[in-house]
Design goal:
Length: about 350
């Protein structure tokens, strides 16, 4: 794994060029998920404005509010547009690497939807390029902004030493990238990376070892995967990842010396049971996490600070997917992510 520190060009006293004006955002990808970004960029993100779009179907009618926004069929034209200060990429993972490098070469900060790339090698190349150019690069791991996840993080210290964590993520086929791209994207890489990132985010620890089994080889696009991960602090984590016909599930349970916390981000419910008899339960209101992601990205640009989810965070999630794929190819053998 790499260990790069964020170092913006203006971190040594030079003021951010975006303090006194709105940041022009170029959005690449206006598919199902990209439309969510488009909707929020129209007016929900302070200090930013939509400057240009790139999509396959250039002539398709969009919102009337976008009448004056240029639409390109080639991402390179969007990156070169002078009104585009920063680029947001919401495309198939197989395209992110090339598009991100083009934006970085043009000197423009970038926000990339997860997964950051299809392989750890590509993800590392993206992060290293942004580091050399002293540019902000953020990964849109939206679950870090989910109110259920944030409450679990707030309550975790009450468990004392963490011992175990169990994650279940089942997503319907109708919401899957596999139906929308020519390149097979397995469940592990598509939404399993969210769980890898949550382990790091919530525990504050790195993953030291993984073992994994899958129903199909990586090249065919696996639909189910069961993985066991252990952090460098000794937390044993079990992951159940699957595409399903119906019945979405998204939950986690953390167990420690002081009790257990269950978080269900589908039902937005968190329950804490401590060994001293404490019982807390909350049901949370939904929050548009994409707005939070975009706002955080814009804040990093305006203040010259590291984004809340760095490119390195996204890279490490993909590297853990690589380790799982290697383990599965070796019949579930234990694999150290640093060795992949």
């Amino acid at each position: 794994m790499i260990d790069l520190m964020f170092n913006p060009a203006y971190s040594s006293g030079q003021e951010s060029p975006f303090v006194m004006r709105k940041i022009g955002i170029g959005l690449i990808g206006v598919g199902r998920h990209g439309r969510r970004y488009l909707h929020h960029l129209i007016g929900d993100v302070p200090h930013a404005e939509l400057a240009a779009l790139c999509r396959k179907r250039v002539g398709e009618t969009l919102d009337l509010a976008l009448a004056d926004v240029p639409v390109y069929g080639d991402y390179r034209a969007l990156v070169a547009h002078p009104a585009v200060d920063a680029v947001v990429v919401v495309t198939a993972p197989s395209l992110c690497h090339t598009m991100a490098l083009a934006a970085i070469e043009a000197g423009k900060p970038i926000l990339v939807e997860k997964p950051l790339a299809t392989t750890g090698k590509e993800a590392r190349a993206m992060v290293e390029a942004a580091e050399r150019a002293h540019l902000v690069m953020m990964t849109a791991h939206t679950m870090r902004f989910d109110p259920t996840v944030l409450l679990v993080k707030e309550w975790l210290p009450s468990l004392g030493r963490l011992r175990e964590a169990v994650f279940t993520s089942h997503i319907e086929w109708s919401s899957s990238l596999v139906e929308r791209t020519e390149t097979p994207v397995g469940a592990m890489l598509e939404f399993g990376v969210h769980l890898f990132d949550l382990i790091r985010f919530l525990s504050g620890q790195e993953v030291a070892g993984v073992s994994c089994i899958m129903d199909r080889p990586r090249s065919a696009g696996e639909t189910t995967a069961q993985a066991c991960l252990e952090t460098d602090g000794g937390i044993k984590c079990s992951l159940d990842i699957a595409r399903v016909n119906s019945g979405r599930v998204g939950s986690m349970e953390w167990r420690g010396d002081g009790g257990a916390i269950t978080g269900d981000w589908v039902r937005r419910r968190v329950v804490r049971r401590l060994h001293d008899g404490t019982l807390d339960e909350r049901v949370l209101e939904p929050t548009p996490t994409i707005v939070a992601v975009l706002t955080s990205f814009v804040h990093a640009l305006r203040t010259g600070t590291a984004p809340s989810v760095t490119g390195l965070d996204g890279c490490r999630a993909v590297e853990l997917a690589d380790a799982c794929y290697r383990s599965a190819a070796e019949g579930g053998a234990a694999v150290r992510p640093d060795d992949v």
